């Protein structure tokens, strides 16, 4: 069994991938399954935590005991995470949030015509993780003591990861090694966790639950 070392802790986990509407039937999306975020929620619950799971377009069963908030877009995910974060000890942003969204959503389905289609203009989405860090830095209202981000990097993993950790103002950054049947949609994952104070923990390839437990070990250490 797992230790109840997160008993009484209020944790927020975002999971899945956002969808950015083009029209009522179409969206820009990504391949995130939500498996890692759900594994984080299940393991935290097993360790005694109260978990709010902000789930973007995930088709997995709700973890028993979690408060699940379903969202679709990055803007909806932002609202739900920022609200839950006000009462949270820690936030883990495992969701794949779209960096861009279509500038406007068509009211009706875009029709196929003989002419070339109109281009889709994109605008930037807010960076929710960076915003959590910035709000805490500014001392704007109650903030989580521990903020954790995820990042998928293909090359210069450590250098890019370290730079991203600083840029986002988070405490821990879980850098996924992308490729070779890892990460998206698979039960296994491998990563290196970078800490703001400079340390790093390598997590060998294994089930997403195992990676989740290492993340919670590091969070519990910081909350102790
Ligand atoms: O910058 P990048 O997308 O690589 O950062 C990934 C991390 O930032 C993840 O933790 C993701 O949940 C978070 N993120 C966010 N808001 C965005 C984009 C990413 O919170 N708009």
UniProtKB/TrEMBL annotation:
Residues 6-221 form the DNA/pantothenate metabolism flavoprotein C-terminal domain. This is Coenzyme A biosynthesis bifunctional protein CoaBC. It comes from Streptosporangium jomthongense. Residues 11-224 are annotated as: Phosphopantothenate--cysteine ligase. Catalyzes two steps in the biosynthesis of coenzyme A. In the first step cysteine is conjugated to 4'-phosphopantothenate to form 4-phosphopantothenoylcysteine, in the latter compound is decarboxylated to form 4'-phosphopantotheine. Catalyzes two sequential steps in the biosynthesis of coenzyme A. In the first step cysteine is conjugated to 4'-phosphopantothenate to form 4-phosphopantothenoylcysteine. In the second step the latter compound is decarboxylated to form 4'-phosphopantotheine. The keyword Flavoprotein applies. Keywords: Decarboxylase, Flavoprotein, FMN, Ligase, Lyase, Magnesium, Metal-binding, Multifunctional enzyme. Its EC number is 4.1.1.36, 6.3.2.5. In the N-terminal section; belongs to the HFCD (homo-oligomeric flavin containing Cys decarboxylase) superfamily.
């Amino acid at each position: 069994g797992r230790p109840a070392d997160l008993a009484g802790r209020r944790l927020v986990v975002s999971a899945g991938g956002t969808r950015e509407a083009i029209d009522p039937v179409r969206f820009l999306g990504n391949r995130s399954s939500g498996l890692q975020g759900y594994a984080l929620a299940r393991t935290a619950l097993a360790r005694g935590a109260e978990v709010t799971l902000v789930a973007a377009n995930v088709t997995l069963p709700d973890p028993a005991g979690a408060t699940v908030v379903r969202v679709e877009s990055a803007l909806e995910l932002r609202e739900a995470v920022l609200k839950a974060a006000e009462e949270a000890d820690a936030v883990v942003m495992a969701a794949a949030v779209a960096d861009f969204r279509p500038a406007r959503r068509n009211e009706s389905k875009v029709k196929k015509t003989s002419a070339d289609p109109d281009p889709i203009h994109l605008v930037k989405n807010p960076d929710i993780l960076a915003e959590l860090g910035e709000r805490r830095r500014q001392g704007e209202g109650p903030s989580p003591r521990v903020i954790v981000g995820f990042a998928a990097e293909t090359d210069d993993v450590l250098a890019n990861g370290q730079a991203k950790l600083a840029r986002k103002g988070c405490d821990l950054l879980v850098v996924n090694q992308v490729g070779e049947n890892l990460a998206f949609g698979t039960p296994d994952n491998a990563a290196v966790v970078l800490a703001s104070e400079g340390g790093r923990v390598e997590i060998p390839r294994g089930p997403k639950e195992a990676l989740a437990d290492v993340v919670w070990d590091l969070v519990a250490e910081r909350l102790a």
